[in-house]
Design goal:
Layout lengths: L1 H31 L12 H22 L28 H7 L6 E3 L8 H7 L3 E3 L6 H13 L10
Parallel strand pairs: 1-2
Helix pairs in contact: 1-2, 1-4, 2-3
Protein name: PCAT2 acyltransferase
Main location: membrane
Organism: Helopsaltes ochotensis (Middendorff's grasshopper-warbler)
């Protein structure tokens, strides 16, 4: 009976996850379409709200479909209380659930991730701080960009 459930549930879960991923890509594409100052200015208004609500909800839905239910105890620090949010060791696909639970903050990511099909568009909508492994000044530039965003007094989202 368990094998039969797995044979039925696995394709259904895969189809649901693909559908959720395509919806996330579509919403990220709409929110960043014709964006002025792409990557250099923070998303504002409906664009930012769309990313926060839609991507956060879709990410939670994807994890639910995969069988994960996350409950938050306590209160997430606001942007003004903590402009930089640290999550460690940030080395697995569970990092996305932290992003969803904290309102889809900006993240620090490898520059190569931005060119990945579908995921790159979703990642770009979070306005990440891109780190280039080929650039010798990348570490210094990354620290400067994180500092600039943290000192922006709420114009940029939290950086994780």
């Amino acid at each position: 009976q368990t094998l039969l459930q797995g044979i039925i549930l696995l394709p259904l879960r895969a189809i649901c996850i693909i559908f959720i991923l395509l919806l996330a890509w579509l919403s990220a594409s709409i929110a960043t379409c014709c964006q002025p100052g792409r990557g250099f200015l923070p998303l504002k208004g409906w664009r930012r709200r769309m990313i926060q609500t839609t991507l956060s909800g879709l990410t939670r839905a994807a994890y639910f479909v995969m069988g994960f239910q996350v409950k938050v105890k306590g209160k997430v620090a606001s942007l003004l209380e903590a402009p930089i949010f640290v999550a460690a060791p940030h080395s697995s696909f569970f990092d996305a659930i932290i992003c969803a639970l904290t309102g889809m903050p900006s993240i620090v990511s490898r520059a190569e991730n931005l060119s990945t099909p579908v995921f790159g568009t979703i990642l770009s909508s979070l306005q990440p701080v891109a780190v280039s492994r080929q650039d010798p000044d990348s570490r210094k530039n990354t620290v400067a960009e994180i500092t600039r965003r943290a000192l922006s007094r709420g114009q940029w989202p939290q950086v994780i």
